[in-house]
Amino acid sequence: MSKNLAAVILAAGQGTRMKSDLPKVLHQVAGKPLLSHVVQIARELEAALIIPVIGHAADRVRDALESENLTFVLQAEQLGTGHALQCAEAALNGFTGDLLLLCGDVPLLRSSTLQKLLAHHHLNSACITILTAQMINPTGYGRIIRGPNGVERIVEEKDASSTERQVDEINTGIYLFRAPEVFGFLQQLDNSNVQGEYYLTDVVAVARQEGKRVEALMIENAEEAMGINDRVQLAQAGTLLRQRINEAHQRAGVTLIDPDTTYIDPDVAIGCDTLIHPGVHLRGKTTIGSGCEIEPGVIVTDCIISDRVHLKPGSVLSESRIGADCAIGPMAHLRPGTVLAGNNKIGNFVETKKAVIGEKSQASHLTYIGDAVLGKNVNIGCGTITCNYDGVNKYQTTIEDDVFVGSDTQFIAPVTIGRGSLIAAGSTITGDVPADALAIARVEQKNIEGWAERNRQKRQNQDKK
Ligand code: UD1
Ligand code: CA
User: Which of 101, 312, 373, 410 is deepest in the core (most CB within 10 A)?
Assistant: First the structure.
C-alpha cells in the first residue's frame, strides 16, 4: 500500500441529466456502479485512503458500496467542487503526500494513465498537476489557460470569453495535489462566478499567485476522460469498458466468437482455450476454467467453474461450483448452493438448488433436485422431483452412491436412499430405502378386460338416440 497516496472521489452531485431516482454514481456499467469502477482505479494505485464525497441520496450510495471499506464524507449541500474537496479535509486526518482527485462519474480512466500523472507530478515537484485532454468539441468543459510560464488558470465554459472558448485543451477534472497545501488554497476561494459555486478549478490561479508550480499532463487517449452525464454516455462507456475487458481475455487466450455480444463483468476470470459463443453473460465474481465451451444465451453469476465444462444454450447458473468435465443444459437452471463434483451431466430442464452431487452422477432431463445430497454414480431418471418443501419447512433428500432412480419418481423429503438401491419408475418414495434394495411405491396395475370396447358401444348407442 502506498502510504503517500490518498484519493478523494467527488460523488455528491445528483446527475440531473440521468433523469433518474437513482443517484448518478450508482448507475451501472459492466455490472458495477460507476463509483465502484472509480474506487477500483484508486485501489489499483494502492491508495492508502479512499474518500468518496457523497451528498445527493448519500445513504443509498453508502449502502450500495458498504462492502468496499471506504471512508465516506458527507457534503450536505452541493456548493461546488471546491467545497466538496474541503469537506474531505477532516477525513484525511493530517495526511501529507499526494492527493489524487477523481470524479465518481469518470469510470474509464486507466490506472496506468494516473501512474504517468504521478510520475510527472513528482518529476516536476509540482504543487498541482492537472490531467488534461485535447477535445475536438470542448463544449461544456473547463479550459486550460496557459501563459508564458505554463498553466495560469482554468476557466469554466460558462465564465469563459469567446477567445478562451477556442482553447481545445480541457480540464478532465482529475488532479494531483500536495496535501495539506491544497486546503490552504481552498480557503481562499469565493463563489463570484456565473454558477455561484466554489470552483475547485480556481485553486490553480491561487497557487500560481503564491508562486507555486502548476503542471498539466495531456492524456493520450481522450476517451478515458469521458464523464457520464446521461444514459447515452452511460451506454457508450459500457461498450468501451466491455471492449477493454473482452480484448484482455482474447489476448489471454479466450476465444470470443462475437465480442460485441459477449458481456463479461470486470471481476470475472477465464482460463485459456475456453470458447465463448454470442449472447453469453458472465457476471459478478465468476471464475471459468480452461478448455470450457459456453454456448449462446448462457448466464453465469458468481460461480466457480472448473476445466472442460460444457455449458449448453440457455442455461442459467448462480452461486454454484461446477467440477471438471461437466456438461450442463441446454436450458438447465443451477441455483445457489449447487455443487457438482465433476463428470456430471445435468440435462435439459433440470433445476438444482442447494444440491451437492457426487462424481459422475447425472440427471439428464426434466428434474428438480433441491436440498439434496447425492453420492457418486447416481442416475436420476427423467421427471424426478425432490419434494423438499411443505409450505413451512425445507427437508433434505439423501441419495447414496450408485443408486438408480427410475423416471417419474418423487422423493417426499426427508428421506434417505441407501447405496446401490433401485427405485422403480413412477414411485412416490415417502420412507427410507435400505442399501441394495428395490423400492416400488406405486399403485398396483389393474386391467379390466373389454372395458374400452364396452364403453365405445355405449357411446355409439347414445349417439343413435
Ligand atoms: C468540472 C470542472 C471542469 C471540468 C469538468 C470535467 C469545476 C468547477 N469544473 O465541471 O473544469 O472540465 O468537471 O468533467 O470543477 N460535485 C460534488 N459536489 C459539488 C459539485 C460537484 O461532489 O458541490 C461532483 C459531481 O457529483 C461530479 C463532479 O463533482 O462527480 C464534477 O461536478 P460537475 O458539476 O459535473 O462539474 P462540471 O460542470 O462537469
Ligand atoms: Ca460533469
Answer: 101
218, 272: one domain:
no
DSSP letter assigned to residue 256: E
Q: Which of 54, 81, 234 to mutate to test the pocket of ligand 1 (most atoms within 8 A of CB)?
A: 81
Query: Measuring from each residue's beta carbon to the nearest atom of ligand 1, which residues come in under 6 Å?
Result: 10-13, 53, 75, 78-81, 83-84, 103-105, 141-142, 154, 156, 170-173, 199-201, 227
Task: Give yes or no: residues 57 and 21 share one domain.
Answer: yes
Q: Is the peptide bond before 330 cis (omega within 30 degrees of 0)?
A: yes
Active site residue 37: no
- Is 462 part of a structural domain of the chain? no
Shortest-distance ligand to the CA of residue 198: 1
Establish if 430 belongs to a structural domain.
yes
Domain that holds residue 374: 253-439
> Same domain for 258 and 132?
no
What is the grid cell recorded at 58?
448519500
Does residue 273 lie in a domain region?
Answer: yes
3-state per-residue secondary structure call for 342-380: CCCEEEEEEEEEEEEECCCCEEEEEEEEEEEEECCCCEE
Residues 280-333: pLDDT tens digits? 999 999 999 999 999 999 999 999 999 999 999 999 999 999 999 999 999 999
46-100: pLDDT as tens digits: 999 999 999 999 999 999 999 998 999 999 999 999 999 999 999 999 999 999 9
Helix, strand or coil, per DSSP, at residue 243 = helix
Q: Which of 173, 206, 225 marks a domain boundary?
A: 225
Q: For residue 232, is it within any domain?
A: no
75 and 148 both lie in a single domain: yes
Task: Residue 375: give its domain's CATH number.
Answer: 2.160.10.10
Complete DSSP assignment for 79-127: --HHHHHHHTHHHHTT--EEEEEEETT-TT--HHHHHHHHHHHHHTT-S
> Distance from CA of residue 251 to its chain's centroid?
21
Position 224 confidence tier, pLDDT thresholds 50, 70, 90? very high
